[in-house]
Amino acid sequence: MEVVVFEQNGSGQQKIDGIRRYGRNVDIVQIIDIVEELPEFLDNPEEFIPLDFSGDLVLDFLVHQDLSDYLVHLCVEKQIPIISSGKKNQEAITPFTCCGLGFHKQLGPYGQQFGLPEYKVTLDGDRIVALQVVRGAPCGATWEVITRVAGSEIDEALTLLPREVQYLCVANPGRFDPISGKSPVHHAGHVHRTALQKAIDAAKNRGE
Questions:
Q1: Dihedrals φ, ψ of 61, to 5°?
Q2: Predicted model pTM
Q3: Looking at the domain 118-206, which fold is it?
Q4: Average pLDDT over residues 144-157
């Protein structure tokens, strides 16, 4: 799967690194990094977004809303799905955070591996002895907390894992969700804790 990334001043670098490190059959073929200083409002976003990009998926890590909206417009024309996390645009896939992305068939290997986290747990009594990532955040936090949590008692792990994820989260903590009242950082911790609890329950049901 060929992925094109748009960012500003390296704004997507940690996620690019995470995708390259943990993704399989997901190839980032082009990175467009816009480094110019921009005014608050852009009348000419087409001057900053090249037209000659192609791929199976576009990841929008742009900061400026005018650039992002124009990029979505281009992707619609090119019939390329685009993920614009944290943005508001009805023509794009817009989860609140990258780790809040649900399953979408058109996202192929990327959508299978990245988005709402999913763990598989092995238990020894009330202790987590092994933790495996089935699906995780493109920033890599889902994978990187494993060694910090494995070996912990269940109750401790359910507090430790979301806290460690929040330390690694690169989302803007000041951007609150008006519905849940959570910041992206809190949301990241919440979805990871939920994933861990689900995996623990599944392990108990298997009798592990």
A1: -110, 20
A2: 0.92
A3: Sufe protein. Chain: A (3.90.1010)
A4: 96
